[in-house]
## 1
Amino acid sequence: MVENRPITTFCSHAVLICGIAIVVFPIWITFVAASHDAVRMTQTPLPLLPGDQFFVNLKDTFIKGVGNAREQSVGLMLMNSLIMAMMIAVGKIFISLLSAFAIVYFRFPFRMGFFWMIFVTLMLPVEVRILPTFEVVANLGMLNNYWGLSIPLIASATATFMFRQVFLTVPDELLEAARIDGAGPMRFFKDILVPVSRTNIAALFVILFIYGWNQYLWPLLITTDKNMYTIVMGIKQMLEAAEESPEWHLIMMTTLLAMLPPVAVVVGMQKLFIKGLTETEK
Amino acid sequence: MLKRTHFNPSPLPYLLVTPQILITIIFFIWPASQAVFQSLLVEDAFGLKTEFVWFDNFIELFSDQIYFNSFGKTIVFSSLVAFLSLGTALILAATADRIVRGATTYRTLLIWPYAVAPVVAGTLWMFIFDPTLGIVAYMLDMMGYDWNHRLNGNQAMALIIFAASWKQISYNFLFFLAGMQAIPKSLTEAAAIDGAGPAWRFWTIIFPLLSPTTFFLLVMNIVYAFFETFGIVHAVTKGGPAGATEIMVYKVYNDGFIGLDLGGSAAQSVVLMVIVITLTVIQFRYIERKVEY
């Protein structure tokens, strides 16, 4: 703050509060919709204040299920999302750590060739190559399982770049000291490099978890088995299954549940989240 | 690029890069080259034989009025999303940068839409604008404005623009705020001593110094609007009504998986790849130059 102007400060707060109101409004409506019963949700105007059915709806969502396809359980979908997100996040971090380690700490033929091969993946989001990638996955027999859900999304240039950047800032003296003490490459990697970059790993994990949890197009294509549905695509299926009279109170409850884990991660680990976001993108 | 000291040559580095390289080849490079190859083929109606047709698929694509429209819609969509979310985020970041008390609370409340999946964002906005039940549609109706995005193409487009921009505000906000906090306070203080008010300081000092961030975000927002909004379109409009919101990334999916026009879809994939590669190259050239200012 450069000068003290009460009026400007007041206006600043007002602008921010307006901004927050816009940002929060859709979620508030969702929350309100999730706390009323089915009858209330068919009468216009819809309520703007929460009702008292929140926990009843929560119970119904988990026990009875939503939409025509009542056999698909919300609990199972949440579980699938969690497994997929964890596999993507852990897998990406693991393979990126290894390849960044190789690229930074070793001099070997085709090093730059590998580096460029990884770099290329930055330019090929799944959306632009969906059909052939789908064929590959189908031929490998990876439809309808967790491997097919996660592995094609695992290769990531951004994570490798980030670790490369981090490793380059690790002082060379550490490596020299480790070598004098007789540590081999993997020992150095495990006992020095990984512990040194643990905050970066955590920051990246936050970003990748959100990325994995929010995948939509890919699970939509490769899962036909209801037991493999993820929560994010499950919402869409619910909307479609109930085209005529959607049970908005239950659908909105499911939407809340689908948003909750990644939002909790962002809010709870805000520092790591911001670190991860600014480091991987730049 | 490389450390001064290395480990001795051994087969170990090959072992270390193997997992990533294998996945890259199997799931990225191979499918992408398949897309390029398929874009040069035509398959007959029964899928029995394929014929190599060179660039016929592309010629057909570029002379297709529908594809041309889809291209135009993508441009309108992505530029409006970028403008709307960048503008809102800039205003919010500029005010948040001024504030001392409660800054963390404001930030927390503004950043979380980043974590909402595009398709979930689409569902939320579809619900509040639902023509029969939606709360905003109801208010608009009270004001005498008839809202039905299921019938009106422009309204459908507006709705997906709102949903896509809403989700992107937090991302832009964080980067703008970080950029502003990196500007030395002495500059704005000097200007304040010379009698420049907050708005004037913003336009003459902060905004110009922020231009690298703005440019970076512009590219990122275009990439976002081009490729990551599939879920929003799929949840809200499915490209309708009558193709009014069929942006390119949705059309690839629709023609490939629903229409089963493999050659045409592959040709569209190749066009999209060229766009991503161009954007990535622009992005990287900018990163190299950024250090100078």
Note: DSSP finds 13 helices and two strands in chain B.
## 2
Amino acid sequence: MTAITPALLQDTGALRNHVGARQLLSNTLTMAWRGLIKIRRTPEQLIDVTVQPILFTVMFAYIFGGAIAGNVQQYLPLMIPGILVQTVITTSMVTGVQLREDMDKGVFDRFKSLPIARIAPLAGALLTDTLRYAIATTLTFATGWVMGYHPAGGFGAVVLAGLIVMLCAWSLSWIWAFFGVIARSASSVQGISMIVLFPLTFLSNAFVPADSLPSWLRAFANVNPVSHLVTAVRDLANNGQLGMAAVWAVLGGVVVVATFAPLTVRAYMRKA
Amino acid sequence: MVSTTRPTELAIEARGLVKLFGSNRAVDGVDLTVRTGTVYGVLGPNGAGKTTTISMLATLLKPDAGSAKIFGFDVGTESQIVRQLIGVTGQYASVDENLSGTENLVLFSKLLGLRGSAPKRKAAELLEEFGLTEAARKPLKSFSGGMRRRLDLAASLIAQPPLIFLDEPTTGLDPRTRGQMWDTIRRLVAGGSTVLLTTQYLDEADQLADRVAVIDKGRVVAEGTSGELKSSVGTAALQLRLSESSDIPSARELIRSTLGVDSVVSEGTGQLTAPMQHADLVTDLLLALRRDNIAVAEISVQQPTLDEVFLTLTGHGTGTPAETEKARRATPELENAR
């Protein structure tokens, strides 16, 4: 009986009408913990960051390697950074899809009725997703390694390249989170994300050298932020150089976050 | 920081709450006053605005007009404080499908600020309390409806809130599980909690609530104790089916002489229905029937249903707003019964 005896309303002075930074952090970590349990319960939701990087890396290398670079070995330094960026960025759209599914569930009503930081479910989801990016990044480089890709830039440069890709994917996930908040169904979020991502990742220098493209397409590929990110990864992994491309890529990510984080948070708070 | 002295005699004080969904006035000027330490029932059919009203009181929805205070704290401007004082159990269990019973309770305990080993201890304690220990490790997908509701209620009680909202806590449950839920709610109240519960069932309001508000089309159409409510609705009905339909006229005559009321014969089944004001008089009727050798095939007592409550209070089952207006004017005596 002790468990359901209510606290009597004696000291209302301990009640506060705002959430402090410590509680925000604690709530966010708890929400991320919930995300991890969900992954453990349904490991199949990791397919896009486990099977897909391996499958696509092997497929693309053997299909296009001969045609584009003469042989598979010479294609790998061009293609591994490309496929890495494509895989990790594509997986970022899961954020929006899962957020929509989550917000439609009954448990979200309870979150709303709890005295927690309103933004914690969103922040926790974005945090958990960095794990997905880390898995995809690691597996893509590992597959490349097995196929004979030994980045000349060295281990440190590869890790830095991976971190930049993860940062950019995390930035983009704010866009999908925004659609996740405002869209009516999870499948429409997926649809919107695909329409944006598919051209963006393919109309770039990810799989072919940009100068092999017709001029109008090359113009687009050259300004495409995905191209900058791919170039940044190539510079780092293959040459150990941190160039302007990396600066553009990170700057692009910052701009996206600066634009979409307030939009998403505002739309989210209106619904949450 | 807020002032420490607030009037806490009233757990809920709502004035003129309105919520619009498009052009639909889901809640259309609801007033509610709930005293601390009581169980308050909100009775109404599907779509009457019960859940929307609770959602506004529980800070899940912003009212389009009107105001509400929980223990003196405004749901709009002091929502974060209100959330520290309430527990909400929804119509559809609001727990995480992908997590086990224990994980759900640990999650909510952590969110509510329990640290270290406290969340696990709290979870075990509540699972034990609600008879869910065996299901602690199972994912929720394998839970029955009753188990989900109990886990949902358990999750609402982690912070031991002084006010608990129960939105249709027994809708869709089988009678046995329903009884268990009632027991749990009674124990909760015995512990000093204030409870606001919504229901579609008159007997549930009758069993649990100290006071009841009947809500229809987003408006409170009657308010009072369940006794006052029931006496306004009228009486239970005695239903008789005779072995020989040729006995019907003489049986009706006996009902008139013993119960002092006219009975209705339903066509086809030949069933007799008579209002039963005093149960004691039924003994006389049965003795009279035996004396006159009238054989009874079936006998039952029909309690007033929510439909009849509505018919009496509003003059319609699910009719038009114009009729509601008329009915509200026609039932001033119950409004005055407050």
Note: The longest helix of chain B spans residues 175-190.
## 3
Amino acid sequence: MLYLAIGSLLVALASVGELVRRAVRDRRRERLPAAAATCAALHTAALAAPALRQGLGRDSARRAVRHLRSLLGTPAAAIVGTDGLLAWSGSGTAHSAAAVRLAHPVLAGGRPHVHDRLDCGDPACGLRAAVAAPLVVDGQTVGALLAFAASETALPARAASDVAGWVSGQLELAELDRYRVRLADAEIRALRLQISPHFVYNCLTTIASFVRTDPERARGLLLDFADFARYSFRSSRNLTTLDEELRSIDRYLALERARFGERLRLTVRVAPEVLPVKVPFLCLQPLVENAIRHGIEGKPGVGQVSVTARDAGAEAHISVEDDGIGMDPDRLRAILSGQADGSSGIGLANVDERLRNMFGDAYGLVIETGPGAGTKVNLRFPKFLPKGE
Amino acid sequence: MTGRPGGPGPAEPPRRTVVTSPATRRALAARGARPLPPERAPAPPDVAPLLRRQLVPVGACALFALVTAVLLPALFTLVPRLDDLVVAGTPLAWIAVTLGVPPLMVCVLVLHVSRAEHLEHRAAAPPPGGAPARPPGPRRRLVVARLRPRTPPAREGDAR
Amino acid sequence: MIPLVGGAIVVTALLMTLLAVAGYFSRAGGTSDFTAATRPAPLLSSAAAAGGEYTSAATFLGFAGLLLAQGFQAVWMFVALSAGYVLLAAFVAAPLRRSGVYSPSDFAEWRLRNRRVRRMVSACVVFTGWVYLLAQYAAAGALVDRYVGLPAWAGWGGVAAVTLVIVLHASNGSDTGFQAVFFWVKLAAIGVPAVVLLVLWQVEDGRMVEHTGVPAFAEPTTVHVAEDQRLTLPEETVLTVAGRVNGRHLDGTAVRLAAGAHHFAAGSELTFREGAAVPHADGARPLEGEQWLEMEVDAPLLGAHSVQLALVLGVVGLPQFVARFYGAASPRAARRTVVVALVLVMVFSIFPLIYAGLGRLYASDLLATGDTDIVVLALPERVAPGALGLALATMVAVGAAAAVITVSAGLATALGGTISQCVLGGGTRMFRLGVLMAIGVPLAALLMLPGLADVSLVPLVLLAFRISAVTVAPVLLLGVWWRRLTDVGAAAGLLVGMAGVAAGVVVPLTGLDPATEPGRLLAMPTLLLAPLVFAVMVVVSRLSARRVPEDADAMLGRMHLPRRDL
């Protein structure tokens, strides 16, 4: 027990030491006055940035306006959108109703505008002048930033339009974020369309071959095909569970097995703990399809394909492996970095990109392959996403 | 685990190389990578009524747990006469703790769980999309299994 | 003890380990049937796994020992643990499963949108786990020390190595099956000998614990005093002492010592006559039969209730459980898993009662050395000398070894995940490094701090529960049920909780008497500390109401409303 206590005491001492060290370091940094002012301004701006990156809304404006006011150094500041006041910060809230009126010329004209002789009727309220600067996204005025002061001379007109320019930049970035998400969505749709033609043709031919000889089986296969198609045309979500994804692969494989028969040998190994893991919609099917193409087509005899899902602490590790003809590493590298021409391997590149989009670059595909050495595609999924859907 | 699949065939002299996209390679080299947050969930449902309705059962359950765990021993300590009560040759306290408390706990828990599930389902009952709540459990899978005649497993067994 | 027994146990333990590892791989063997491969773990099996991760050496060995030393009133601790399961199932199981978090740290980050709070929660989780692991190592050391005659560090090293092998290979497969199988192994290993011993006891004489009188030696017994110790004699006793008693050197002469505490120097040999009262080591209070049977709590009530509360809340915050919910097939399944696990654990804990009762009759001399933790191991040979006793003892020892190893494995996996996520960043290599740290740090602590190994099992486990009760549990409970919890509030509460735990560990050592006012204030019992932590979280959250995450409603909805799809 004594040692436990000493241990915790040491940890406590270390943390106190670290705090002191940081404080001293911060103090030292603030010695240069000009640098300190820049630093303070940048720091305040950084505080406002995350809210602005959400786009211009009542909530984000409310969180950002405080910091913008301290950036401008005025007693009051406001953000106005095209459909009314979004947020007010500082004294003289009686003016907030007038803010929309003040912003009107800016919203219409897109130019900064200075008003003096404000009067709210309250003698205690010292706000007599205001400047309104436009917030512009993509050449369109989406709102205005207002700064209030006691007199026109005290008004930071230049600073207000600079800050408004910076806010516009952040809002444009927010717009960009939204485009990025939309792009990822579009990509998923694009991938979904790619599945069909080749595979649909093969499937239907295979099923047709069973219609006479084994109608019962043909019926089962058609149902599989219908199930698989329904799953892959489902459009609402980007994420699904590993469980669902594996079940859709089951249907897909039933069709492939019907086509290849004995030549396709399959091993599945799944730890039940990872079944609820969220994975991008249709991220495994292209890999399995790829494994079958490389494992069986272009090679005589039996091909082995194995799908493994393992539990690894905070992550799930999944691999799809075949013992087929393998791929040329250089060509694969070109495919993954988007420099390859032709359409082969586009499924791999697409899955890789979607994974990286969704989870970060470190979660891209890791592929082990060589000519004649088979291919093993490794995927990692975090079990938990901080802002998961 | 870089094991080969145990398929037949000649030993493969060519070796595999590890390939990733350039971004992944950089990210893996700079370790400490964390997953990116994906986009936010839409449409916050109103959960307050459910929480309010659950307040009573949940509070009762918590009270029960705390009472059995903390107040019951106090009762036996502060009222020593309880300890002297003997029923059929066994001290009452023993009967209470070994035969009484555990089944009671399980009962309370089972009741609470079923009630909470009922409340939750009722709260989620009016589906905005129209489709009724799919009952949990493997029902769907059973249907699939029945419809699809599988490739006979014996054949795969032979092939191995 | 008997080298034969030691040998047998070593061989069996090794065999078992091999079987376990082999079973692991064969279970992970592939199939070509997707429907079979993607079947979620059955309810009974995941419940057994949850139970298996909880039935550690402390439950297997320590609980019976505690009952033997403190009397039947210790049963209340078990009642508190069960109540903890009730809270777990009622409050957190389903919401946590719906939220999709993998660990308490994930929960903190997701619910409060703050990486710093996440780190704090991770620190608490890791510290809890380390203390819990320490208890497992200590148990392994005691086992090896007693049965094989090897030094305790061999046991620690052995457990560390076996755990490492199991966990790193577990990353190739699944952990549920493994834990579930070993829960049944443990249940059989403690249950079958208990039933056999009960039958033997009935056949032999079926005598009951006498209501009057303290434990007495059934035959002339020599007690070896390993280190300077105070033994309490329940009554005036005549004994032969070779060594120093109360500062007086004696050379194997008989002395009459009054009832009460006496000092014996290390290396003394005490020989008691048949029928002499058993002295009590480690400050244990001699209990008359009637007192032993009583349910009356004789520790100061505040302290006893603190233990109860720490156990109730501690169960809620244990990291293994949260991870278990993640793997459950559905929120319903998560709840039901806890309910079934509660039933299983209840069945399991009937057996320590049997061992404690028989221990009072047959093995009360263990009180003289304070080795009450091994009553489960010692009992079979006392009741049934010969081959049967040996077989039963081996069975129990295998069970104890399994308890140590499986719980260590479960903890190491949970901690490895937490450490790798929080400190190192994800990835396979980092997970392995995390596991290595999870296993290695307590081992290093044991090796470097020699006094640590002497702490008995139950206080260590209680400390782990206490940490979890005043840090992780409030965050989980409030986070799941209270919309207005903020990151600042949670952080303040966590700090208070951690400070309280640290003070509780430090104060008794600084010489500050916990009975006096400042000492009592600092070494705050859980009964005050836990409400204080809750209160701090609530008050500070209300004060920082601006920081409530804007999508708190959405998060609560996600946790409490069943979802139609996904």
Note: The first strand of chain A starts at residue 76 and ends at 81.
